[in-house]
Input
Amino acid sequence: MKKLYFSLMIIFLLGACSYQESTKEVSEEIVLPTSIFSSSKNNAVIDEKEMKESIKTYLNTNEDLSNISDQFEEMMDSDQQLTKAEAKKLEQLNDLVKENDRNFSTYISHNTLPEGYKKESERISRFIMGSNQILDELDQAIDDMVEHISEGDFSETEIESLMNKNEGVNGREQKKIENFLDDKNIDTKAFGRKS
Output
């Protein structure tokens, strides 16, 4: 547990110390995507070509949103407060992440998927939604941890509880997803893959 605590502290301190650019320069570069995964199909039979494209779109959009989220993290780690416009953009980003997840989950649960895609599509949806939720909660926990440390009060069990909360988000699940993507020749930039 001490190793986890020290690892988190080192990551936090390195992130806070390494950022040098001004918030204004970075915020001007942040552009939210104009579209996310969406489908109006309901009770339809989805063919394999469309399913592959749907998975690719969902994963690539999630990767793009995650990269934008990283830019906001850098801004906040620089100890500069977000402007109202930046805060609004961050709120819009969080809404897009949730909507992207919700749209894909609805799509795979309300349509007939090609043979061999139902189980793996559900795995992808659970994994991405779970990792997005964990990242959101981890950000909040780190903020709380910094506040508690400055007050001389910190509970290691909060972080430990968060790390154990979603057991479906782990390297084994990611490997199964990547194997499925390889099997079906779905080219995506998710998980650091090149699209």
The chain has seven helices and no strands.
